[in-house]
Amino acid sequence: MSTQSESRFELDTIRERWEPRIERFKRGWARYTTHKMGVIGLVILVIYILWALFPSVFAPHEPAWKAYVGYENTRWTAEQSASLPHPPAFGDPFFAPLGTNANGNGIYTLLVYSAKDALYIGFAAGLLSSLVGVPLGLISGYYGDTWIDETIQRIVDVMYGLPFLPFLVVLVAIRGVNTTNIILGIAITSWLNNCILIRGETLSLKERAYIESAKVAGASDTRIVFRHIMPNVLPLAFVFLAQDAAIAIITQASLAYLGLADFTANSWGIMIENVKAHGYIYEAPWWLIPPGLAITSIAAAFYFIGFSMEDVTNPQKE
Amino acid sequence: MASDDPEPIVEVQNVSKLFGTTQGVTDRLLGRDPTPVRAVDGVDLTINEGDIMGIAGESGCGKTTLGKLLVKLHEATHGTIEFDGKDISDLSKTERNEFRQRVQMIFQDPFESLNPRMTVFQSVMEPLKINDIGAGYQDRRDRVKQVLNDVGLAPAEAYLDEFPKELSGGERQRVAIARALIVNPDFIVCDEPVSMLDVSIRAGVLNLMKELQDEYGLTYVFISHDLSLIRYMCDRTAIMYLGNVIEQGPTSEVVMNPKHPYTEALFDAVPEIDPEAERHRANVTGEVPDPRNPPAGCRFHPRCSNIIPPEGWAGSQEAFRRVFQFKSRVLQDDLDPEEATENAASESTDAILERGLALELPEEHSLDAEASRSIDPSVLDLPADAERTLREAAERLLEGDFEAAKAEVEDEFESICERENPAVREAGTQVTACHLYEEEAGEPVAPGVSD
Amino acid sequence: MTRISARYLGKRVVVSYITLLVIMTLLFALLRSMPGTFLASMITPEMTPEQIARLEEVWGLNEPLWVQYVDFMVNYQTGEFGMSPTRRVPVWDVIVRRLPRTLILFGAGFIVAYIVGPLVGMYLGWWRGSRKDKSIFASSLVMYSMPSFWVAWLFIWLFNYELGWLKSTYMFTKFPEFEWTIVTTLTDVLHHITLPLLSISFVGWVGAMLVMRPSMNNVTEEDYVFLAQAKGLSERTVMIKHAARNALIPVATQAIVGLAFLIDGSILIEQVFSWPGIGELIVSSVLEKDYPIAQASFFMLAVIIIVMRLLTDVVYTYLDPRIKFGGGQ
Amino acid sequence: MTLLEVNDLSIRYDTGDAEVHAIDGVTFSIDRGETYGLVGESGCGKTTLAKSIIHLLDHNGFIESGEVWFDGTLPHWEDENGDPRREIVEDDRYPVRDDGMTDLAQLDTEQIRDIRWRNIALIPQSAMNALNPVYKVGDQIVEAVLRHEPHTPEDEAHQRARDLLERVGIEPDRADDYAHEYSGGMKQRAVIAMAMACNPDMLIADEPTTALDVIIQDRILDELDELQKEFNVSILVVSHDISVMAEICDQLAVMYGGKIMESGPKTEVFQQSANPYTLGLKNSFPTVKDEQTDLVSIPGSPPTLLDPDDECRFLDRCPFAVEECRSSHPPMYDVSAGEESRRVTAENPQIHRSACYRVDELETMRTEASKEETWQATTQNR
C-alpha cells in the first residue's frame, strides 16, 4: 500500500511544485516576446550558438584555408601575395564573401569559427561572476547590518577603488595569457556589481511582510533564503548574467587589443588586433569592420536579452 | 465576551525595545554615537485568554513593534514577555516550535504578506510543512481546503492554485488569516488587519475574525489606529503614546470615560458619521515629538491641556499651560523676536508676550481674546511675578541674548509632568499613567488587576 | 555647501586613505607574485651571480619581505617611486609628466559622458515606453556594446584618413610649423583631443543613461511631479526642474562605478591614439616588464579613482538635501 | 451661484485590449463657497473624476464625452474685471458660454495649464510626498505664484509665501527649510498654503487626510474649514472616509463603479439614504461614540469596469435587484418624490437624487437593508 501512495504522493508533490512554475514561465515568456528588442537579441544569440556548435555548416572553408591555394601547402606568387588582404571575392579568383586577411584566411570563415570563443568567454565569465556575486549579495543582504555584511561591503568598496583594466592586465600578466586566466580575471572584477545589486534587492525583500510571516510560521533562515528570497532574486541574477556576459566579451576583446590574448585561438578580438598588427586599418575595411560588428552584435544581444528580462521580471509589472 | 474567570495567556512586564543600538565597523571607527529609538518603552500588559485586546495609538507610537515583540519577531531589549507562563526569550528548541504553532500574526498589507511567487495552496500549507504537521500531501491538502472554507473562501478548489495577484484585497487577507489558522493557534496578533481594505469589505473580515474566535477558541491582540474599529472589536484597550501604554481598561470605559488627557484628545479627534453629532475638537498642541529624543517626564506633557502647575502657582491652570509653552519655546529657540515684533502694533516685549503665550488650538478651545496666533496677556490669570519673569526673558530675546533669556526661564515654572514619568495608577475601571490621578489612587498598581 | 561638515569630510578622507592603503598592499602582493622578480628585464644571461646579487641589493630585493613591504608603503606615500629599470630615470618624473595628460583626456571624457548620459536618460525616462524611447534605447545599447578601440579606429579612418580633419596621434604636433602661442596651443590640442574624446564618450555616456532612465521613470510617478503639473508649470519645467533634478541622485552613486569604466576606456583610447598618458604607460610597462613604472601608474590610477569618489560624495550631498553628512540621519 | 457644472461626463482609460469606463455619464454641480464631497471605495472613479476637471489624468486616460463648465476663464480671454471678453463669448470657436462659463473639457493642454492653480488648485493624495525634496518649501510656493502672476517682484512673492505659511500655522522662517525637515502635519499644511498661493476659486482635495493621524487630521479639517470661510473658496473633496465627509461637506455624491449612485445635501444623503449601496455602506461603517450594533458588509467585490454591460453597476452585489435593473443603469431619481412612492427623474443636480429603480419603495428598502440576513442572502444566491 505504502509504495503506491508514496509514489502518488511524490507525483502529486512534483505536480504541485512544478505546475505553478511552468505557468509562471509561460506567462513570462508571453510577456518577453512582446519586447521586440529581446526577441532580436535572442535570435542573434541563437545564430551565434549555431555558429559555435556547427561552424563547418556555416563557414565555406576550414580556418586553415588560404586564398588562391586552399589547403595546398604551396607558396603564393608575388602577385597573389601582393593582392592580400583581398577584398570580398565570390568565386573569382576564389570564394571569400568577406574577403581575406593578410594571411589569406577567409574573414567570414574566421568569424564563424570565433563564435565559440566569444560565447565560451561570455557564459563562463558571466556565470562565474554570478556564482560569486549572487551568493555574497544574498548573504550580505540577509545579514544586513551585521559584521558579515560589513566585511563583504568593505571588500567591495576596496575593489571598486581598483582600476579594473590595469588590474586585469597585471593579473593576466602574472598568471599567464590564456583563456582560462582571462575568464578568471574578468570574473574577479565583475562580481562586484552583482553583489551590490543583489544585496540591495535582498535588503528590500527582507522587509516584506511575507518574510516576517514566514518567520512567524517558524521557517528557518535557510528556508527563508531559499524558498522566499532566492526565487524573487534569481530572475534578477539572470539579468545580471546577461550583462556580465556582454561586458566579458568586450573586455576580452580589449585585452586582445592590448596584446594580452591567446593568439593561437580564433577570436574576434584577435582578428581586430591583427588588422592593426599588419597595418591595414585604413586599407582593409572588410577586415576591420566584421569582427567589430560581431563583438558589438553579440554584446548587444546579451544586453537586449538582459534588459528585456529585467522588464519581464520586474515585480511591479507582474 | 470575556470569560468569568480570566486566565492570563500573555504577560508583558516592563518591556522595552530600542532600535538602532548596533553600529557598523566604520561607525565605530569614526566614533559615531548611535541614537536609539525607544520604540517600546517600559510597557506592562496582561492579555487574558479569550479576550480581544486592542492596542491603539497614532503612527510611531510603538504599537506595531509591541505586536512584533509578542510574536517574537523582535527580541525585547529589556523586560520579559511570558506566554502561557513561559518567558519567550528563553525557550528550548521544542518549546520554540510549540510557540511558533500557538502564536500567529496577521499583517497589515495583504498585498505584501503573501509571497507573490507562491500559490494560495503553497502559502497556506507552508506552516504545516515547516512544523511537520499532517500525514502526507493529501492530508495537508484537505486541511488547507477546510481552512479556506472556514475563512469564507468557498469553494476552496477555486482558490488553491491562484496566485495572490489574482485575488482582491479582501480575499488576500482571508488567505492570510487561513495561513495563520491552519496550525490551530491559541493567540493571534492582528496588525491593522483591515486598514488596507475597502469599507464594504472590511466588515466581512472583522465579523469573520469574531466568528473564528469562538470557533477556534482564540485570543487576539488587535492593533489599529482606527479607534472606531477598536471600539467594534475589542474587549479591552490599551492606548499607546511614544512607546508607553498611557491608559488601559475595558474598551467602552476607555472610549466613553477616558482618564488620560491624551486618550480624551484622541477620541475627540475621531470624526462622526452622524452629520448632526456635536463633536469636540482635540485639545492638544503641536505634533508627536521625535521618538529618538522624547520629552522628559511624562511623554505627553508638552502637548497636554491639563499640565499641572507647580505648588504655589497663583494663577489659573489655563494661564500656566500658556506660560509653560512660552518657556518651552524660549528653550527651543522657537520664539523669534523679529517675527514676533514685525507686524505687531504694540511695544515689542508686549508683542513677544502676545505671541509667545498664544496657543494654536481649535477655535472651541482657544480663549476669546486669542486670534491669529497672539493673545493679550492681560486676559490670562497671570501672577505678577510670572509675568515679570516672562517680560525679563522677552527683553533678553529682544537684545538678542538668547542664552540669558533661557537662563531667565530655565528654572521657573516647573511642572511635575516634565520632571517625573508618571507611574501606572488605577483610575476608575482603567489604569492610566498620568500625574492627575496620583492623589486619588495612591500607590502604583500592577496592570490588569483592575477588573 | 554648508550641509557637508568639515568633520564629515575629514572622516571620508580617512576612510579613503585606508582604502588606498589596502589597495597598495594588494598591489605590493600582486607585483611580488609576478613571474620572476621585477629585475628580470635587467638581468642578462652573461651576468655573474655576484652582479645579480648586487643588483638585487641596489633594488632592495634581498631584504626580508616585510621590510620591503614597509619600505614600499612608506616610500610610495612620500612620492618615492624608485627608478625605472628600463628607462633609467626616476619613476616619479615619468609619472608627473604623464599624469596631467591623462587627467585632461579622462576628465573631459567624464564630463561629456555625464552631461550627455543624464540628458538622454532624462528624455527616455520621461517618454518611457514610447517609440522614440525604444529606438533610442536600443541604439544606445548597441553603442554600449562596441569595443571602444574599434570605434576609435573607425573614427580615425573617417575623420583623419578619409576627411583629414582631425589628428589621430599624440597630444601636440611634434614638429610644428607654427609658433606656440596660447591660441595655437589650444587649437592644436583641440585638434588632437577631439577624436580620443569622441571615442571615450561615444561608449561612456551610456552607463549614466542606463541609470538615469529608470530613475527618471520612477520619479515621474512621484507626487511632487504630479503636483508640479497641477501647478500649471510647463512640461519642460516639470521634467527638468522637478523630475530630472531628483532623478540625478542615483546617477551620482552610479558615477562611482562609471568612473572605473571610463578609466578602462581611456586606457584603451590612449593606446589607440598614442596619447602619452598613464594608461598608455601602464600597458607598455607591463609588457616591457618595467614593474616599478607599472606599479606607480597603477597606484596613480587608484588615487584618481579614490579622489573622484570623494568628489562624488560632495556632489551627492549637493544633489540631495535630505542627506546631512556628519549629523544623525 | 454655480462655480462648476459637470454635464454627462464620461472618462475612459485605454488598456490596449479593452477600455475602462472609469467615469460614465456623471452630472453634478458645485456652488461658490461650497464643499462638495465625492465618496466611494477604491476604483469607483472618484479620483479620476476630480483630476479630469483640470486634465490631470494618466497618459492613457481621456475624456470621452461631456462638458465641464467653470465660472472663470483663461487670462488672455479676460477683460479687466476678470470676466471673459464680449468677442470671446460671442465667437463660437471659443468654448465660452453666454453666462461667461468656460468648458474646461475643450481646452487644450497649454490652455488648461493657465487654469490650473490660478483658478483650480489641488491638494493631492498623500500630500506628505507632494513637496519636492530638493527645493525649499518657500521656493515651491513662490514658483506657483510666479507662474501665474509673472509680474510679481521676487521678494514680494517670497513675502507672500511666508504669509501663507503663517496663515496655516507654520513659522514663516520655516519657508527656508526643506520638506524633510517638516513633520507630517506641517507638510500637509504647507501644501494647503501652496494651494492658496494664487487665490483660487476652487480647491480639489484628494483624500486630504488619509495619511494623517486622527489628531492631525482633526486639525487639518479645522484648517480647511477656516480657509473656506475666509476665502470663500469651493472645495471638492474626494475621500473613502465617510465620517470625514460627514463632517466637512455641504453636498455629497456617493460613487460606485464610475457612476454617481446618490447625491444631494449631506444630511439628507446620510439620514434619508435612498440607495442600496449607500445603505450598505452605512451598515459597514463603525462609529466610535455609539453603542455598537453589528456591522454588515456588502458581499462581493466592485466591478472591473472593463467594457461593462448596460445593467446597473451595483446589480451583482445588490439584495434588492429586480429584473428591471438588468435593462440599464438607472437614471437619477428625485428622492423626495420617492418618499411619496413616485418615480420621477430629477434634473436639478443639487437636490437629493438616487440612481435606483426601486426609489419608490424606500420604506421597504430601508428596513430590509438594516437587517444582516438581507445582505447575506445575496451571497447565497450566487
What does this entry look like structurally?
- The complex is a heterotetramer of chains A (318), B (451), C (329) and D (382).
- Chain A has twelve helices and two strands.
- By secondary structure, chain A is mainly α.
- Chain A has one domain: MetI-like fold, CATH 1.10.3720.10.
- In chain A, strands 1-2 form a two-stranded antiparallel ribbon.
- In chain A, helix 2 packs across helix 5, helix 2 packs across helix 12 and helix 5 packs antiparallel against helix 10.
- The two termini of chain A are 43 Å apart.
- The model of chain A has no long low-confidence stretch (mean pLDDT 85).
- With 451 residues, chain B is of the alpha/beta class.
- Chain B folds into two domains: 251 residues, Rossmann fold, CATH 3.40.50; 106 residues, no CATH class.
- An eight-stranded mixed β-sheet of chain B has the order 6-7-8-3-9-10-12-11, with helices on both faces. In chain B, strands 2-1-4-5 form a four-stranded antiparallel β-sheet, with helices on one face.
- Chain B is elongated.
- The C terminus of chain B is likely disordered.
- Chain C is mostly helical.
- Helices cover 72% and strands 0% of the residues of chain C.
- Chain C is globular and about 85 Å long.
- Chain D has 382 residues and is an alpha/beta fold.
- Helices cover 31% and strands 20% of the residues of chain D.
- Chain D has 13 helices and twelve strands.
- In chain D, a hairpin with a 2-residue loop joins strand 9 and strand 10.
- In chain D, helix 4 packs parallel to helix 6 and helix 6 packs parallel to helix 7.
Number of strands of chain B: 12
> What is the CATH superfamily label of chain A?
MetI-like
Instruction: Name the helix and strand elements of chain A from N-terminus to C-terminus, one letter apiece.
Output: HHHHEEHHHHHHHH
Q: Using the CA coordinates, give the radius of gyration of chain B.
A: 26 Å
Form type of chain B: elongated
Low-confidence stretches of chain A: none
The CATH class label of the largest domain in chain B is: Alpha Beta
The counted number of beta strands of chain A is: 2
Radius of gyration of chain A: 25 Å
Please report which band the strand proportion of chain B falls in: under 5%, 5-15%, 15-25%, 25-35%, 35-45% or over 45%.
Answer: 15-25%
Quaternary state of the chains = heterotetramer
Classify the secondary structure makeup of chain A into a structural class. mainly alpha
Q: Share of helix among residues of chain B?
A: 25-40%
CATH C-level class of chain A is Mainly Alpha
The DSSP helix count of chain A reads 12
